[in-house]
Design a protein that fits this description.
The complex is a heterodimer. In chain A, 31% of the residues lie in helices and 26% in strands. Chain A is α/β, with parallel strands linked by helices. The longest helix of chain A is centred in the last third of the chain and has 18 residues, at 181-198. Chain B is mainly alpha-helical. Chain B has helices spanning 9-34, 42-55, 58-89, 91-104, 113-120, 124-148, 152-160, 165-202, 208-217, 222-246, 250-253. The relative contact order of chain B is 0.12. The chains are: A alpha/beta, B mainly alpha. Chains A and B meet through β6 of A and α7, α8 and α11 of B.
């Protein structure tokens, strides 16, 4: 299975430095005394600053893989390495963004964004909060509580909270899944803008083919039960992507048939 | 008024006041029509209470009852909340102690009165102990449940930002469980207020519970018995309304119904 990234995207202007690697990762859950293989032989290499989408039907283990890479779950066998070190636990250098449900409802927008900044001096902390409030466009809502915000705004809070600790990797688990389709489109644009400005390595789990093709440098297509990497598709279109261009449609249709779906409903 | 319609401002006061007036009238005429010599009319109750106020004893009885509830309740909070956090945080401990809790919990604090008197003698501490018992279990149980039901993603987010387990407990689990803890605290306050009256009937010689039993025993003053009962109801309501204010504070408001 090829894990060489494409040559045509913006990635090529950077030197390709490996950031993250999974080696023969297997995950078996035990349920009611039965062994349930969830992930099988996952070999994946991700480069520094790369935007990867893990795409697959629900139940294919893509979220499990992401949780394992983030250090929340231990693989049954195999290793996950980030910067050459084996991942054993979650780490503030790599932040996991849940759906907007991960925002702490007892803290204000400011309190949420500053949550991971406890060790900074007060003035620097306030500056950092202000900077990221602005980056995600929440000026004027600093003192608001999450229950006073819309779903899209809560998602921005969570992204800002993650960015504020300046991690080098972001894990996003279907972050826009609970949003309406218009807000989702806007949030994708925002995420790309932030990614281009901050150059984090991003692993993004989604079951939405369009979302994957719009965002990713490479789309990792997974098959279900047990979860395997079926194919890795480089998206060789530069940003901003024209989502009605022939190449976009070609890539999208390629993935559609890879998953085994017809193009007609 | 339909169920959905927002009542107008004057209606929100007018209808409850009317209902109360209707109830008082019903009571009054029931006493008149049955020509009872024992059960007092609302006016007799009012006269009796005014008499107590003039003697200066009513105020003292209310304060004594409130003081006993305050001490017993605060002790239950001070012990119940930390224990609840601990048991919720370590399910293994909870499994060990849960059977004991579940056996002790359904025992009415009233049943503890003889034991309380053995422990503390007749006096303040026995009554306070009963309040403590009544308040302790609801606090403990809601606290354990609250902690156990904190969504996994909050804990994960906490550890992801580099928090140590005690920090996760203090900065994530406690605030996340706080709304359910507050529900337990409110229920416990109501129970404490119920129990203090019973305790005062037996263990002490002051307070609203004592006022009831003493008014009956020394001269069958049923006007004072009913007056004390009404006061207990009004003060209980006031305590509950006061506590409901706490639930509107912004860091916990998200956890209560009617707030999206």
């Amino acid at each position: 299975m090829s894990i060489q990234p494409m040559i045509e995207t913006e990635m090529s202007t950077h030197t390709l430095r490996p950031k993250l690697r999974t080696e023969e990762v297997n995950m078996i859950f035990t349920r009611d005394g039965k062994n349930l293989p969830v992930l099988e032989n996952i070999n994946l290499e991700v480069f520094d600053g790369e935007f990867i989408c893990l795409l697959g039907p629900s139940g294919c283990g893509k979220s499990t893989l992401l949780s394992a890479i983030a250090g929340f779950l231990k693989p049954t066998s195999g290793d996950i390495l980030i910067d050459g070190e084996i991942v054993r636990a979650p780490d503030p250098r790599r932040i996991f963004v849940f759906q907007e449900r991960g925002v702490f409802p007892w803290l204000t927008v400011e309190g949420n964004i500053g949550f991971g900044l406890g060790r900074l001096p007060r003035s620097e902390r306030a500056q950092r909060i202000q900077y990221y409030v602005k980056m995600v466009g929440l000026e004027g809502f600093e003192k608001s509580y999450p229950h006073e915000l819309s779903g899209g705004m809560k998602q921005r809070v969570e992204v800002a909270r993650a960015l504020a600790v300046n991690p080098d990797v972001l894990f996003l688990d279907e972050p826009f899944g609970a949003l309406d389709s218009i807000t989702r489109m806007i949030m994708r644009g925002e995420l790309l803008r932030i990614w281009q400005a901050e150059r984090k390595t991003i692993l993004f789990v989604t079951h939405d083919i369009d979302e994957a093709v719009q965002l990713a440098d490479r789309v990792v297509v997974m098959s279900a039960r047990p979860g395997r990497i079926q194919q890795i598709v480089p998206i060789d279109i530069s940003h901003p992507r024209d989502i009605s261009s022939p190449r976009y449609l070609e890539l999208r249709d390629g993935i559609l048939s890879q998953i085994g779906l017809a193009h007609n409903l | 008024m339909s169920a959905q319609a927002q009542p107008r401002k004057w209606e929100r006061f007018f209808w409850p006041v009317l209902a109360t007036a209707f109830f008082l009238a019903l009571w009054h005429y029931a006493v008149v029509w049955t020509a009872t010599n024992i059960f007092p009319s609302p006016l007799a109750v009012e006269k009796g209470l005014v008499e107590l106020v003039h003697k200066g004893v009513l105020y003292q009885d209310i304060l004594d009852s409130l003081r006993r509830v305050a001490i017993g309740y605060l002790a239950a909070v001070a012990i119940g909340v930390p224990l609840g956090l601990l048991f919720g945080w370590y399910p293994a401990i909870n499994q060990v102690v849960n059977p004991v809790i579940q056996i002790l919990r359904p025992i009415s604090p009233i049943a503890w009165i003889p034991v309380a008197i053995i422990f503390f003698g007749v006096g303040d501490y026995a009554a306070i102990f009963l309040v403590f018992l009544g308040a302790f279990f609801p606090i403990l149980v809601t606290c354990v449940d609250g902690v156990a039901n904190v969504p996994l993603i909050y804990r994960r987010a906490g550890t992801n930002f580099g928090l140590t387990p005690p920090q996760v407990l203090a900065r994530v689990v406690f605030p996340a469980a706080l709304p359910s803890i507050l529900v337990g605290l409110r229920i416990a306050l109501g129970i404490g207020w119920l129990v203090v009256v019973a305790g005062e009937m037996i263990a002490v010689t002051s307070g609203l519970g004592y006022l009831i039993i003493d008014s009956r025993n020394s001269g069958k003053r049923y006007d004072l018995v009913v007056g004390a009962m009404l006061l207990i109801g009004i003060i209980g309501l006031a305590l509950d309304l006061l506590f409901r204010r706490v639930e509107t504070f912004k860091p916990v408001r998200w956890g209560f119904r009617n707030e999206s």
